[in-house]
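From the pipeline queue, job 12 of 40. The input is one protein chain; the requested action is below.

Action: predict structure.
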Amino acid sequence: DGLVDGDNATNASTGSYVGAGVGNGNKSINYAVAIDSTHAGNYVIYDAKDKTAATKTPLSTLTTAKNTINPYGLAVSFGPVNRDYDGTTAINSTLVKPTLAGGLKGDVVGLAAGYTANYIDPNVKTVNASSENAVIYKGLKLDSTNGADLANYTLVNSSGMALTATSGMPGTQTMTGAGTMNKFKLTGDNV
């Protein structure tokens, strides 16, 4: 690094991306290059390419290219779904309760309508005296009506893991959630 051993000088450089939007290998960072104020008077910073040059030009700024800003993961989750057995996997949309973690301050993002929710199995599953039936949500995507901020985000689960692409529905994701299914209650009217 070129610092004198035992001097305890530290890098006090700061940097910022040129533009805040997502980019993969195409983002530049501008740096203000500096050594901490206690030791700055003992050093002159040069570009590495001047290392063997006869004349070295002091460096106070530096720009690097080919940097990346990854999309910010918005955690989507759904409250448990519960309904009575009816022989189908269908779930009424009024039973689906999505939650989407907020975006960064000033950005507007939301979950698009049009996704589907179905039990994975139409039959009641009994586990330890409770009826656990997983729900699959397909066609999840961010709302495209929210403008330029949309490209800076991606959907993730509550653990921060990326969602799986939905087969046959380009640009959408799939996830599973919790659900229960109650046994159908036979009464004198339906026996």
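Job complete. DSSP finds no helices and 14 strands in the chain.
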